[in-house]
Inverse folding.
């Protein structure tokens, strides 16, 4: 059998993602769940690294693992106690969850298997230069993304101001 | 200047000459790099602890460690062996998994950034295109370990320490990032090797004059706060919180936090060195060719470590001089002074780059 190093690494990352995702939703301690989610996010960053898309990997780590997860943990700190456990999920809900998950896998598999070759063609471009990403993000020509970038910034600004307004009312 | 690529390529070629499969060569090289980095990590920590104790003693008009070995040089080795032999005390009623996991997250984060530092010409394990951004990304993971430690200790002092540390690290990360971005604008690249190479004729702190100097000062202050030492050591304020988030840890688990704290100090100093003080580049002054040539004879890792230890000295100086801040003063300093200053500084730097006012 001929297995390359990248296939082994991919295997490890994939097993990590699947195992920790399942643990995230099955554990009954909410902070542990957040920690398992951290590993899922880090393994996803690992997959981006494997695809030579270093920028996206770093964004994944800094935004999700370093930012959003810290927010999650902070909000868990403020709302629950150390010994707290979540209630057991009733069998009906578990079954519904499993069905939804299986259906989701089905849809994903259908899409991937149907378009699989196109995806491998799209991602096998080698490492993308940071300068190229910057110019694409900030350019105004065809296939450049200044307008969506600015639209999202305004949306975020509105969210921040809204957050301050809500917090100030108290 | 000796290029360490000669050495690494020689290792690579002699491994390939053994007729191993590519896979085997890769694994052996990865293990070698890992061992080298881990050894450097541990030895640097030992040296730093000794250095700190000596400097601290100097500021307080004492002698510091002077019994074990010459100048007390073997003192930290003895301390390391002692901490390795200490019992790990298990504590009741806590979340065991998270409690044991937390020190590893802290170590992982500092090890990941340590691994990508350029220590000398050709002495860099991995040279990412996004170098500085990668550094910022992985060093932001450390705060998670601190938060988990505080929570899983099930102890109010640890918890308060963790909350303080979370607020502190998240806010000061902004200033660290923005001051580094100022220099990224100046360099036009995020790749560490390119940033270092551009400083061959003159270091960035001289080239970029005013804004570079402001960015350097802001970076030193914010970076110092990131490592939660000196006047910013609220997360482990011993007079209020016993030892903050690592109160419940004993033996080598506590040792991990201690190790990570010292190495984070080194990493902050090393990034300051790389971005502002020319990395491993010798001191070159345009026009003085003889002087520049003499400087080239000093090996590049010596330049790198020398500059890094100079930055560490500055940080220790601050640490043993100023009294601890209150939490509100700490957050005021960041959000009301450093952040606006930083944003203006970025604008200033952009103008300087556009109009080419730099050297």
């Amino acid at each position: 059998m001929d297995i390359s190093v990248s296939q082994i690494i991919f295997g490890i990352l994939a097993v990590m993602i699947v195992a920790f995702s399942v643990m995230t939703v099955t554990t009954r301690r909410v902070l542990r769940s957040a920690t398992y989610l951290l590993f899922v996010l880090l393994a996803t960053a690992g997959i981006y690294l494997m695809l030579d898309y270093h920028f996206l990997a770093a964004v994944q780590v800094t935004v999700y693992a370093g930012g959003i997860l810290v927010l999650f943990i902070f909000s868990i700190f403020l709302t629950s106690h150390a010994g707290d456990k979540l209630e057991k999920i009733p069998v009906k809900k578990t079954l519904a969850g499993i069905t939804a998950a299986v259906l989701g896998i089905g849809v994903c598999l259908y899409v991937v298997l149907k378009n699989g070759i196109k995806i491998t063609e799209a991602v096998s471009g080698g490492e993308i230069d940071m300068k190229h990403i910057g110019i694409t993000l900030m350019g105004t020509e065809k296939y450049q993304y200044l307008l969506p970038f600015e639209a999202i910034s305004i949306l975020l600004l509105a969210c921040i101001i809204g957050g301050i307004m809500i917090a100030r009312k108290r | 200047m000796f290029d360490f690529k000669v050495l690494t390529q020689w290792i690579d070629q002699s491994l390939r000459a053994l007729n191993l499969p590519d896979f085997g060569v890769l694994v052996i090289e990865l293990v070698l790099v890992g061992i080298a980095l881990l050894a450097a990590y541990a030895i640097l920590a030992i040296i730093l602890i000794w250095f700190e104790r000596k400097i601290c003693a100097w500021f307080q008009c004492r002698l510091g460690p002077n019994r074990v070995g010459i100048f007390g040089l073997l003192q930290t080795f003895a301390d390391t062996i002692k901490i390795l032999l200490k019992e790990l005390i298990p504590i009741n009623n806590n979340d065991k998994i998270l409690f044991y996991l937390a020190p590893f997250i802290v170590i992982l984060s500092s090890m990941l950034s340590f691994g990508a530092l350029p220590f000398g010409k050709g002495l860099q394990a991995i040279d990412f295109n996004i170098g500085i951004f990668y550094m910022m990304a992985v060093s932001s993971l450390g705060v998670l370990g601190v938060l988990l430690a505080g929570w899983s200790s099930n102890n109010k002092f640890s918890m308060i320490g963790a909350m303080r540390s979370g607020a502190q690290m998240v806010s000061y990360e902004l200033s660290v990032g923005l001051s580094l971005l100022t220099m990224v604008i100046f360099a036009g690249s995020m790749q560490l090797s390119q940033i270092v190479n551009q400083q061959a004729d003159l270091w960035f702190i001289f080239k970029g004059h005013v804004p570079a100097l402001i960015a350097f000062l802001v970076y030193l202050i914010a970076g110092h706060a990131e490592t939660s030492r000196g006047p910013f050591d609220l997360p482990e304020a011993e007079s209020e919180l016993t030892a903050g988030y690592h109160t419940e840890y004993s033996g080598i688990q506590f040792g991990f936090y201690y190790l990570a704290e010292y190495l984070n100090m080194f990493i902050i100093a090393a990034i300051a060195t790389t971005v502002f003080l020319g990395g491993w580049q010798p001191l070159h002054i345009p026009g003085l060719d003889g002087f520049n040539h003499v400087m080239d004879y000093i090996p590049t890792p010596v330049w790198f470590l020398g500059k890094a230890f100079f930055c560490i000295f500055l940080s220790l100086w601050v640490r043993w001089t100023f009294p601890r801040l209150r939490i509100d003063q700490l957050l005021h300093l960041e959000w009301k002074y450093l952040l606006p200053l930083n944003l203006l500084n970025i604008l200033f730097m952009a103008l300087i780059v556009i109009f080419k006012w730099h050297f």
Observations:
- The interface with chain B takes residues 4-5, 29, 31-32, 35, 38, 54-55, 58-59, 61-62, 65-67, 69-70, 73-74, 77, 82-83, 127, 129-131 of chain A (CB under 8 Å).
- Chain A has a mean pLDDT of 83.
- Residues 138 and 150 of chain A are 9 Å apart (CA to CA).
